[in-house]
Every structure is written in structure tokens, then in C-alpha cells.
Amino acid sequence: QKEVEQNSGPLSVPEGAIASLNCTYSDRGSQSFFWYRQYSGKSPELIMFIYSNGDKEDGRFTAQLNKASQYVSLLIRDSQPSDSATYLCAVIAWDNQGGKLIFGQGTELSVKP
Amino acid sequence: EAGVAQSPRYKIIEKRQSVAFWCNPISGHATLYWYQQILGQGPKLLIQFQNNGVVDDSQLPKDRFSAERLKGVDSTLKIQPAKLEDSAVYLCASSKSSLGVNEQFFGPGTRLTVL
């Protein structure tokens, strides 16, 4: 069973701080990694994807990937109350039926004004 | 561009009853997915269609769940008979293809409560 693990939180940070969200995955063959944001009662929306080792920056968001350690993270700089949501890490895992997106359980982030 | 449409948004049924959900993907998206999201968990893939063919249904409880996408556009997911543990949000998503890095767009979901 291929797995994606996240700390469920809640992670609480003050406004303006850096929020760090972490994720580990079990399938060494995974090549594509995604971060989704899900507001309470809403559906997930993609905020970043990464498939090369290292960092990828998009505005206040930075995704970091370390395939050797099977670890992917999301940093949110200058956190805002509007960033309060659950962040889902997802990994494409491959089996004999093709690739499928495997989600972690999500980390709840709360940004306090 | 219209997003993924789902109906109904909410459904309450008693155990052993049947229920059906409908999804209309984004126009032109060949791949359609049904996910089950239990409270406090991430979405779990139930079934994936490529056009009107099933790509992956390995996690679909086939004794009670069924899904179809007859004309390669909209899709229905049915549960018969429902169990208490089926209470969840059922999310439909679509993407242009299932290959490579492709973004899945999610619909608003159907929240099912089984009493």
C-alpha cells in the first residue's frame, strides 16, 4: 500500500510568520508531487506541483523536494489569515493500472492575526 | 470556463437505501475521477475514467458501488445499498489527460450522510 504521511496539526502560526508543512511518501518511484489547499467545506485546489529535487518558488509559496529522503515540504512566507486551511500533499503513485494521485490526510493550518 | 459541476450538494439517506451522484466535468477534459473524502482524511480515489473507459477501479467497493460514463462526458456514481461508513464527501474531478503532470480540477462535492 503506497502511503503519503502528513502531520494532521493543527499548525498555528502568527500572521507574517513562515508556515512549514511537511510530507513523506513511501513509493520511491514517485516522480510528481502536488500541494492542494482545501478551505473548510470546500473542494481541494492545486497551489503547486514539483517534480525535480530542490526548491520551486511561486509567490509566497515554496515547494521543496528531496527524493533521496522521500520528503516534500511547502513553505508559506508572510502567512496571512486567509491562508488558514487544510493543506493536502499528493503524490502520483504507479501500479499495474497506471498512475493515481495518493493524498495524505492533510495538515490544518491556522494563521492568527 | 465553467468548472466541474456536481449534484446534489447534500444528501441524507438511511442505511440500506440507494443513492446516485452526478458529475459534469470541464468541457474537453478526457479524464474523470471520483474520490471519497471521509472527515479528517485526504481524498481517496474510487474510480478513474479515460473518455468512457475505466482506467482504475481498484479501490471501488464493487459489491455496492458502481459508476459509469457512458458518452465520455458526464458520469454517475451509485451506492446500493448504503452503509453507515459511506458517510463522506464524494468529489468529482477532471483533467485534460491522465498523462504527465496534469492538474485535476475538483467539483464542489456531494456531502452524503447515512443514518
Q: How does this structure look, described?
A:
The complex is a heterodimer of chains A (about 110) and B (about 120). With about 110 residues, chain A is mainly beta. In chain A, about 0% of the residues lie in helices and about 60% in strands. Chain A is built from no helices and eleven strands. In chain A, the strands form two sheets. In chain A, strands 2, 4, 5, 9, 10 and 11 form a six-stranded mixed β-sheet that branches. In chain A, strand 4 (about 35-40) and strand 5 form a beta hairpin. Chain A is globular and about 45 Å long. With about 120 residues, chain B is mostly beta strands. Chain B is about 0% helix and about 50% strand. Chain B has strands at about 5, 10-15, 20-25, 30-35, 45-50, 55, 65-70, 75-80, 90-95, 105, 110-115. In chain B, the strands form two sheets. In chain B, strands 2, 4, 5, 6, 9, 10 and 11 form a seven-stranded mixed β-sheet that branches. Chain B is globular.
Short description:
The complex is a heterodimer of chains A (113) and B (115). With 113 residues, chain A is mainly β.
Give a count of the beta strands of chain A, DSSP E runs of length 2 or more: 11
* Main sheet summary of chain B: 7 strands, mixed
Order of helices and strands of chain B: EEEEEEEEEEE
The number of E-state strands of chain B comes to: 11
Tags for this model:
heterodimer, A: 113 residues, mainly beta, five-stranded antiparallel β-sheet, 0% helix, B: mainly beta, seven-stranded mixed β-sheet
